[in-house]
Amino acid sequence: MYGSGINKESDSRLFIYEVVGLGQSQATDSLNYSVLQRRCGPQLITVSKERMNQETQRIMRMGGSIVSIKPLNGTTHSAENQVIPSPSVPEPTQENSKPMVQTTAKKDIPVNIYRPNKPFIGKCTENYPLVAEGGIGSVQHLTFDLSGGDLRYLEGQSIGIIPPGNDSKGKPNKLRLYSIASTRHGDHGNDQTVSLCVRQLEYKHPETGETIKGVCSTFLCNLEVGSDISITGPVGKEMLLPDDEEATIIMMATGTGIAPFRAFLWRMFKEEHDDYQFKGLAWLIFGIPTSSNILYKEDLEKLQAEFPDNFRLTYAISREQNNSEGGRMYIQHRVAEHSDEIWQHLQKDNTHSYMCGLRGMEGGIDEALTVAAAKDGVIWSDYQKQQLKKAERWHVETY
């Protein structure tokens, strides 16, 4: 269905991708695309509706990015085809400006109960490894005792940790923020603890080759039980759960980005609440390098077995699984595989999507959903902004 042999009956099933970042090379020539304009800059590619997902993954694998998707109008190969119209969105009024599905009322969200100049001093009660034998790196689960203070929080918020000592300029170390991995009631259900999921930062200095370790992450990962810890916060209103017990919650995480979603899932399925009985669908898409790096693996898979109608678990294990093109399986590839289904969920007023982890996954996820939305004649970027973000249903916390 490529090239000049296009008939009028199939025109409505063809789309033109505007792609940047590929460049002309032997590798891109071998993809057998019908390139309508090949130059040092944007390239136009004809793609059939049936192959939109596959071709998007190829473009991603070759390092390209999709700028726009346009329908092929008639038999012309001109770049002047009309852009797919975005859905009609009414201007905000006093009646319709509020989100259709709201999270906890803003006034009820605890923020900055403890500040850097007067932090809460808690104690470490737990510090155990989460990476199994053979895994990559070091990730620890830490729990801190909050008794004697007034630190309270909600799922999806973060706390600040102030590591002891001074920085290279002789000034006290500044706080680092970490997503909370426990529910508002804590891992022990007594409202007296808060937990974190912390990866020890370690990298090679680009010039000297010296191994550099993160100040705060190293402090936390090596923290002994019984040690004092300076805590600030909580902070954050972006990643809160909606109050709707029948909502669809789509969670996309890489590595320690699992932290807020552990809090979500524990509240949904492991705790019993008089004020919250989750009856919707929770879907976690989790990207990790190896099976040994699946954080909270036993708990997650137990939840999946116990609540098959309400919890769905999808892994993207980059060093053990291959995507459809034979390359490593990253989270954006899993999203691309399920993009049509995810897109259908996102069109429902009570679906919330959450993304937490490495910032690099955002582009690939947007590209996959661009393809899925285009099949229904919708421009993803417009829908994302005008429908999801405006209604506070698209939540992102990446770094």
Can you say what the CATH homologous superfamily of the largest domain is? Nucleotide-binding domain of ferredoxin-NADP reductase (FNR) module
CATH level-3 fold name of the largest domain: Rossmann fold
Query: What is the CATH architecture term of the largest domain?
Result: 3-Layer(aba) Sandwich
The level-1 CATH class of the largest domain? Alpha Beta
Query: How many strands, what sense, and barrel or not for the largest sheet?
Result: 6 strands, antiparallel
Helix content: 10-25%
Query: What general form does the structure show?
Result: globular
Contiguous uncertain segments of 5+ residues: 1-11, 23-40, 74-103
Query: In order across it, which strands form the biggest sheet?
Result: 8-7-12-5-6-9
The figure for the number of domains is 3
Q: What's the order of the H and E elements?
A: EHEEHEEEEEEEEHEEHEHEHHEHHE
Tally of extended strands?
A: 17
The end-to-end distance, rounded to whole angstroms, is 41 Å
Alpha carbon gyration radius: 24 Å
How many helices? 9
**Approximately how much beta-strand content do the residues carry?**
25-35%
The average pLDDT is 82
Q: What class, by secondary structure content?
A: alpha+beta
Feature tags:
Dna Ligase, domain 1, alpha+beta, five-stranded parallel β-sheet, Elongation Factor Tu (Ef-tu), domain 3, Rossmann fold, globular, 26% strand, disordered N terminus, 399 residues, single chain
